[in-house]
Amino acid sequence: MEIRPFAIERFYERWEFRAELMLSSSDCESLSVSDLLALEPDAEERLRVLDLGYTEVPGSLELRTAVAGRYERAQPQDVLTLAAAEEGIFIAYHALLGPGDHAVVEAPAYGSAIDVARSTGAEVSLWRRHHEDGWAYDLEELESLLRADTRLIYVNSPHNPTGSQMSRAAFERLVEIARGRSIILFSDEVYRGLEHDPADRLPPASDLYERAISLNSVSKAYGLPGLRIGWLASRDPALIDRVRELKLYTTICSSAPSELLVALALRHGDALVERSRRLVVSNLPLLDAFLDRRHDLFDWVRPKAGPIGFPRVAGAFDVQAWCEETAMNAGVLLLPGAVYEEPRHVRFGFGRASLPQALERLDAHLG
Ligand SMILES: Cc1ncc(COP(=O)(O)O)c(C=O)c1O
Fold first, then answer.
1. Rounded Cα distance, 283 and 262, in Å
2. Does 298 lie in the same domain as 247?
3. Most buried in the list 48, 213, 298, 363, measured by CB within 10 Å?
């Protein structure tokens, strides 16, 4: 298998634990184990006596029941749990694509969405959106990319890195296009619930379309990335079966303590997601004000959903070198757009409680 280095994660591997203030993260303020254990009276005792044997391959029934409860039309058997969304991207693509297939992937995108698809040997076309068009979703262009051998379309809304959100009408049209050609719709919904206006929330793709796979995890909207649990939901049992076969080669089953804690968290899922959404919505005006003050340097399409935005940077300097210098000298970590092959952009994250402090530090550093 040939695969390019994962530029986003390489950058964070190098800087995330060296810079004091994170100003680009795609996750929201996280919770502690004791925050979770306080959610139900018997939770602490259940964790203490938990047997640390292997768990069920598709995920414990308790966890799959809690996941299914987050969908209108999913049953526990429609769910496959994962070691977070990243495992889902890897095993779903490798289970469903190969040489001779064609896939369409939205771009810019979280790197593995593009590079793991390519690593299967499938031919990949990018459905590219543009800052200049307000990151608009051009569905006619998407249709023009489809071919007789197109097997899968990957989309991610709310979107990393632009914070854009597909409208309900566009999403329904996308489903219609996929259904008309029986194309698998691989819908990465890890930021679902973080729409700044809850009226913009889309249904999970797997509730709308029988050949959709909805990908989610507790890493973003739920504030629990350290538990490393995600899941796929699909009403097509053949799709779930094929992906499960590959999970036997990656993790076999998930971590037992994490499964217990995530089932607990999902039973209180609305409250946890709302906690993150409120922080995102209260931080956004602070970032807005900062970008307004610095409009000579940054120009952004204001995000509509999720904890990140992707301004364009003015000037001819090297944005990646500037991000590294800022991390080193100001202790504030931004993510250079070069990791998305958008070298004139920079990613800001606004889902953390330390945002005011990080902005103040960046302001002082810029002078
Ligand atoms: C769109 C998208 N999908 C998947 C992932 C991976 O998430 P996880 O931490 O659950 O593996 C990320 C992480 O940033 C992401 O932004």
1. 26
2. no
3. 213
Distance 148 CA to ligand 1 centre (A): 30
141 shares its domain with 240: yes
Contact indicator for 131, 345 with CB cutoff of 8 Å: yes
321 SS3 class: helix
One-letter amino acid at 334 equals L
- Its pTM stands at 0.98
pLDDT at 235: 98
Residue 259 shares a structural domain with residue 345: no
Q: How many CB atoms lie within 10 A of CB 131?
A: 18
In a domain, 37, yes or no: no
Strands 123-128 and 184-188: unpaired
> Is 160 near ligand 1, meaning CB less than 6 Å away?
yes
CA-nearest residue, atom 2 of ligand 1: 110
Partners of 232 in beta bridges: 80, 215
Residue 313 host element (H or E)? strand 312-313
pLDDT in tens, 312-340: 999 999 999 999 999 999 999 999 999 99
Tokens of 362: 């960046």
DSSP state of 106: E
Q: With respect to residue 43, please indicate whether it lies within any of the assigned structural domains.
A: no
From the CA of 89, give the closest atom in ligand 1: 4
